[in-house]
Structures are given as structure tokens and as C-alpha cells.
Design goal:
Elements: E1 9-15, H1 17-28, H2 31-38, H3 48-61, H4 66-73, H5 79-83, H6 92-102, H7 106-121, E2 127-136, E3 161-168, E4 174-181, H8 190-201, E5 207-210, H9 217-225, E6 229-233, H10 243-247, E7 252-255, E8 258-263, H11 274-278, E9 281-287, H12 288-318, H13 323-336, H14 338-341, E10 344-350, E11 356-362, H15 364-373, E12 376-381, H16 388-396, H17 398-409, H18 422-448, H19 455-462, E13 466-473, E14 479-485, H20 490-498
Parallel strand pairs: 2-5, 5-6
Antiparallel strand pairs: 1-13, 2-3, 3-4, 6-12, 7-8, 8-9, 9-12, 10-11, 13-14
Helix pairs in contact: 1-3, 3-6, 3-18, 4-6, 6-18, 7-18, 12-13
Length: about 500
Amino acid sequence: VEVDAKGVRVENCRQFGGPWLAMRLIEHLQLDDFLNRHLPRGQEQVRWPLTAMILVIARLLEPSSELHIAVQWYAKTALPELLGVPESRVDDNRLYRALDILLPHKEELEKHLNNRLGELFALEYDLLLYDITSTYFEGQAAGNSLAQRGYSRDQRGDCKQVCIGLVVSRCGMPLGYEVFAGNTADVTTVEQIVETMEARYGKSDRVWVMDRGMVSEDNLQFLRGGGRRYIVGTPKSMLKQFEQQLLAEDWHTIRDGIEVKLCHPPVSEESDELDEAQTETFILCRSRDRAQKDAAIVGRSAQKIEARLIAMTARCEKQRRDPMKVEREVGRLLGQNTRGARLFDVQVAKTEGGQARIQWQKVQPQVDWHSLSDGCYLLRTNVRDWSDEELWKAYIQLSEAEAAFRIHKTDLSIRPIWHHKADRVEAHILVCFLAYVLWKTLGGMCQAAGLGSEPRRILDELSEIRAVDVVLPTKAGIDIRSRCITRPSDHQKILLQRLKLRLPSKIIPNEM
């Protein structure tokens, strides 16, 4: 066949690398098999497992609304051939219905993924990290009882929100999550989360790690009563009980700038909980970098207060000012600079003439205490057979839970929530959770291949691979059309080789 070289062209360029990689991750997790077994089959034109996979893949690659997926994104990808679902059969209504059908299988999904992740990466679930965050709504969400106003981690106190409690392993692999009303206090979620995880995965000798927002005496009593082990943070105010230990020099340096020491709990002779308190160990921790940061924050706050008090004092001496008005100004000043407010003792007096006079001074004991406690924090645990370094390292693993929330909110765009129905909101969170599992699976594969633990760069690099139609016009007037995959670059070849993935030479259409 003679080809007209001048007329050779490329058409229908679509995203291939990202969707293809996402499907490989789904196969690794056997998520497709799970969906095929559990989602109902009826007379629908497109099987629900395929529609559910479209939602999860889209959330991983280009988080957006169901309408955007159906109208714009899906047609730009090679998924119509990879999944065998034509563009004309993907619409927002079908995607919404897939959310409704997927949600009832949340618990079984979590169990399946937990088992599969354990097989793939030889995970140990001896340490469970629990943290909670919030995500806000756009709109009133009037029909959703979970949508409430509360403490917003997104600085969106003007919006209703829901709270999400997430449990991950020491390496950040997710075990499960629960959704709470937006006005739920962190401390009230502990019993439910612990009992839910134990009912789902069994009760074994695990160590629960939580930050100070989860700590209350009732929660600690609950954990101890069930024979559970824990490592938790404590309120800053509790440090005062360990002032003598802070002054001592018997610190243990575990890495540059980090010092720790084990301490016995301060229990008075009158305490009725002496036996329980003796089962606990406290870990004092001191960070040089954190001390510098705390000192800088308190120093700036104190400077603002001092400069303003000097100006206000001078003004009161020159002008006749109302004492009540001056007191309100002082209150606002201290309220706006809370970190340095405790360092000052401010009194507003009323002279015989009825005008205001300000008397203030720095409280030296408070200044000394801040200098001593800057950069220090306190942990408590009933784990008796670990060293101070092991306990500190376990608590620091909470950063894995924080990183999980960060990925959910940035890369997977869990916020804001545009759905208003309660079931749709929970299904939206479930799809984000499944996309996060794909993310962590790719991260685990990268780490095993020596490519680091940040999958975003790998995902972006392989997403550059495209599927195209090469059109060869012949001199006989007939066009020869060949659907091809672009040749990977040298760097992409190395990534695929290290990940033990083989890029196909052509797209083999799937049948629904």
C-alpha cells in the first residue's frame, strides 16, 4: 500500500498512562474481583463494578464532580476501551446511583483491603494510629443531620462540616474510618472507634496511639479496663507537675535536637487511683527546634503586648479616659495575643478624678516557666516493656495519620463537599478513601522498588503516556487508522521496569 507521507496525522489523543496504572493498582488489590462479587447485577446497561471503578480512578487522577467526570474527563481518557464502557453510557445520574450502591459495602471493603494490603506489603498492625479531621460543605446541607457547625480544621467556621476519624498502621496504610457529626468532640469518638476496629479485626495486643485531643480520664479508664495498651499526648498544663524533672539533667538524647526521659507519675498520698497511676509511665520530650519556634512565637506576642501597653499607659496619663473602655481595650489586646498574655499582670485603676490609670508588670515566674518548658511536651503510656526512644518514635508516627488527611484534602480533594444527602456524603468519603488506598498501594510499590515513598511524582510521570490514533492516508484514497500507545521515555521505561509493570503495545478493548 502506498502511503501519502504528507498526510500522515495523529488524532484522538487521550490519557492512557494514568488510567492504565490505576487499573493495575486495582488488580493488585483485587478490588475489581471484590466489586464483581458483591455489587448486585441486574438489567443495567453498564455493570455497577465498572461504574464504581470509574469513580475511584477519577478521584485518584483528576478529582472533580460526577458531572465533570461524565461530560468532560471520561472522554479524554482511554477508559472507554480499557473498561469497555462507551462514552455515551457514562452520565452523572449513573455515577450518582453507583455511589448509592457502593456505600452499603463499606465494612466489607475495608476488611478486604486490609487483608490484601497485609499480603502485599507484609504489614504489621501492632500499632494503630488514630486521628480525626473535618471537611466542610458548600451550601446549607439542611437535610443532613451529620452536617453541623463545629471546630473547623480548615478555618471555615462559617460552613457546616462533618468529622472523619481515620485509623492507619504505623506506615500510614489505612484500616478504616468512621464519619461523625460536625459538632462532635474528638474525645467522644474514642470508644466507638476502638470497639469498631476490634469488632472488625479482632482484639489483639495492639498499641493505640492518639494525640492529646483524644485524652480524657474516662477514655484512659476505658482503654485500661479492656486490657488495651496506649501511648497518648497530654495537655500542656500537665507539664507543670513535672517541673523538677524538667530541671534535672538526666535527659537521653535519641537524635540531634531531641531529648527524652521516662518519669514516674506524680501521685499524692491521698489519691484513690494510686494503683492505676502506677501502671502508667510518663515520657518527657524536649525538641530544640520546637523550643526555638515556641520562644519566637511567645516573644513576638509579648513584644506586641508590651509595646501596646506602653502606648496605652502614656495615653491614659495625657488624656482623661473611661476606665471601663480601657479595660475592654486591654482585654482585646490580651485576647488577640494569647501566647504572651500570661506573662503580664495588667491592672486598670480608677483615680480620684475618675480617669483610668494602667499598672502592669511582667510576671517573672511565668517568664521563667516559659523559658523552661518551651519545646517540651509530655506523653503517657501503660506500655511497660518499651524504651523511651521506642515510645517516642511510636507517638511520632501520628504524622502518618496527619499525612493521610493532607493527601485526602489536597491530592484527592475531599473538600469541599457538594453533596447534601447524608448517604451521598458518606459515599463521597468512601470513594476518597478507596482512592487513598490506591495512592498508598502505589507508594508501597515505589518504596519496595527503591523509588521513594512519594507516589505523586511517579503518577504524574506515567500519566504523560498517551493513547493516539495514527492515520495513514493512502494514494488509493483509503485511510489506514491504527490505535497506538506513545513510546515511553527512557525515564518512564526505568520507572516501569522498577515497578515491574509492562506497558502494552496496543489497547485491547475490554468487553462489558
